[in-house]
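In this section we turn from sequence analysis to structure. A common task in structural bioinformatics is to predict how a protein folds when a small molecule is present, because the ligand can shape the pocket around it. The inputs are simple: the amino acid sequence and a SMILES string for the ligand, here manganese (II) ion. Study the lines below before reading on.
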Amino acid sequence: MQPEHIRAADAELVLYRRFIAPPDSARLLAALDAGIQWRQDRIRLFGREHAIPRLQQFQGEPGLHYRYSGLLLETKPWHPLIEQLRRRIKALEPAPFNCVLLNLYRDGNDSMGWHSDDEPELGPNPVIASLSLGQPRRFVLRHRQDRQQPKIELLLDDGSLLLMRGSTQHHWQHALPRTRSICRPRLNLTFRCISD
Ligand SMILES: O=C(O)CCC(=O)C(=O)O
Ligand SMILES: [Mn+2]
């Protein structure tokens, strides 16, 4: 499997377009869609509470926490299929992934706004492995300090694995824009390394 290195200043982005082959990715998406207790959490942004525009769950080693936008997520146990994925991903990228945030975008109205994954618990240079299943969606990145840098736009296909490493989270924000015409679901799993 040949990775694609995406060239951009201050970023380390590596994309494996076919990390999971289509029949397997469809089975996996169906099993996880049905086998996980999805929740729509509420977050506080600019003083107002909102339901986030997607469903999510946080899994990983017991006792780990992840805090963002006033939300405190506690790990649920690993789903056996996700444990298998974690092992496969670690064979490519030997980082101590100990948790995963799952996001289910039910259709094109579900999205994620601009942010960096730079919470202190992720350490100084977070390594994030982002696996996408189902509906291909646009994933965009913009430079945080130098807005002259061109935006990066990737189509994250069914079965693709994107690695974000090095100083990427310090210098770039990313988002998954809403695309109203889309009606099929997409599941994204971001494997992360959290220190206690
Ligand atoms: O769904 C995606 O591709 C991005 C998810 C993401 O950025 C996150 O979970 O922090
Ligand atoms: Mn993110």
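The chain has a mean pLDDT of 96. As an exercise, try to locate the residues that line the manganese (II) ion site and compare them with your own expectations.
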